[in-house]
C-alpha cells in the first residue's frame, strides 16, 4: 500500500488539540490547499493542518496527482475510484492522528473536487466519526449499479456534520451536484448544510473560505 506524504502546518498555539486534513483535487497536489490552513490559523489556533499528495501521478497533468483515474467512460468510475483509494487514505489518517497523539474524533476533513469525493467516502466509513467534513466543488459518490447500491447504505457507519460549498457557475462539476449530494447524505442520516456561491466557477471564494473555517471552529471547539 502506498504511503502518503505532504506539507504540514503546526498549531499556532503550540498545543495540538485537533487535526484538519486537506484533500486536493484532480491534477493538483498537497501544496494546492495547505495555504487554507494559514488562512484558518486564527480561528483554529490549536489545530495541526496536513495536506497529503494523492497516491497516483495524474494522467491529465504531468506535475499533478490524482486520487483515482478519470476517463468518464464508465458510469461507476468514481465509485470504483473512491473504493480503491479509500484504504490508502484511511491508513494515512490513522498515522497522522498517531503522530499528533490525537483521538480519532479530533479529526476533520476538507476536500476540493475529487478530494471532496474522497473526504465523504472515507469520512462516512471511519469507525469513529470525524468531527466534521467540509466539501468544496465536489459530489458524494454513490454506486450507479444496482448490485452495489444494495449494500451502499450499510457501509455508512459514521454521521459527522457536513458542509458542502459549490459555485453556481461551476462548469466541471455542475452546481446540481450540490443538491444531489445533500439529498444522498440526508438519505443516510448524515446532517448536512450547504452554500451556493453566486458567480463562482470551480473554485473557493472568500465566502466559502469563511464559512468553512467557521464550520470547523464550531465542530472542533469546546463542547457545551
Structure description:
- The chain is of the alpha/beta class and 224 residues long.
- It has a single domain (8-220), classed as 3-Layer(aba) Sandwich (Rossmann fold), CATH 3.40.50.
- The protein has helices spanning 34-40, 77-99, 114-123, 146-155, 176-187, 206-220, and strands at 8-9, 18-23, 47-50, 56-58, 61-66, 107-112, 132-136, 162-167, 192-197.
- The strands form 2 sheets. It has a 7-stranded mixed beta sheet with strand order 1-3-2-6-7-8-9, with helices on both faces. A two-stranded antiparallel ribbon has the order 4-5.
- Strand 8, helix 5 (176-187) and strand 9 form a beta-alpha-beta unit.
- The longest helix has 23 residues, at 77-99.
- The N and C termini lie far apart (40 Å).
List keywords for this structure.
224 residues; alpha/beta; Rossmann fold; two-stranded antiparallel sheet
CATH class: Alpha Beta
User: How many domains would you count in the coordinates?
Assistant: 1
Strand order of the largest sheet: 1-3-2-6-7-8-9
Under the CATH scheme, which architecture would be assigned? 3-Layer(aba) Sandwich
DSSP E strands, number: 9
CATH topology: the name is Rossmann fold
Structural class estimated from helices and strands: alpha/beta
What is the general shape?
Answer: globular
- Describe the main β-sheet briefly: 7 strands, mixed
CATH superfamily: Alpha/Beta hydrolase fold, catalytic domain
How many alpha or pi helices?
6
Question: What gyration radius follows from the Cα positions, in whole Å?
Answer: 16 Å
State the assembly state of the protein chains: single chain
